[in-house]
Design brief:
Elements: H1 3-17, H2 24-34, H3 41-52, H4 54-64, H5 75-90, H6 96-110, H7 113-131
Helix pairs in contact: 1-3, 1-5, 3-5, 4-5, 5-6, 5-7, 6-7
């Protein structure tokens, strides 16, 4: 599986976790059982990492929202922000720009152009703060 597909599959699991308090393992097992879900080490790394670091990641999101409350974000936008920020902060092998671009592309597929633009703006702000 290529990195783009793995990232999208990690997003799907992160999105699903927004609606379920089940364990990481249960969500993964259900995804594999319910559909032809591809799963690899990268999907596991990102999904588990986002779950483990969710409080820290959400603090970063909140600090970079402009005129919004985290509770007002769509679940798609929130999931993509969590995914991209996890990569930006904890996966050194991926350039920040790649994380941003991939999150925006997934947003275009699963949400609206407005969400994609908003995600791009928030992640741009996060990137600027990381570089400081």
């Amino acid at each position: 599986m290529n990195r783009k597909t793995a990232r999208e599959n990690a997003f799907i699991l992160i999105f699903e976790r927004c609606f379920r308090e089940d364990s990481v393992e249960a969500i993964i097992e259900d995804a594999i059982e319910a559909r032809e879900f591809e799963y690899d080490d990268y999907v596991e790394l990102v999904f588990k990492g986002v779950c483990e670091k969710s409080l820290e990641i959400d603090e970063v999101i909140i600090a970079n929202l402009k005129g919004w409350n985290i509770n007002r974000l769509s679940k798609v936008a929130l999931s993509l922000l969590r995914l991209a920020i996890y990569e930006m902060l904890y996966v050194d092998s991926i350039p920040v720009k790649v994380s941003i671009n991939e999150a925006v592309e997934i947003a275009k597929k699963y949400s609206t152009q407005e969400d994609a633009a908003y995600i791009n703006g928030v992640l741009g702000s996060v990137a600027a703060n990381i570089e400081k």
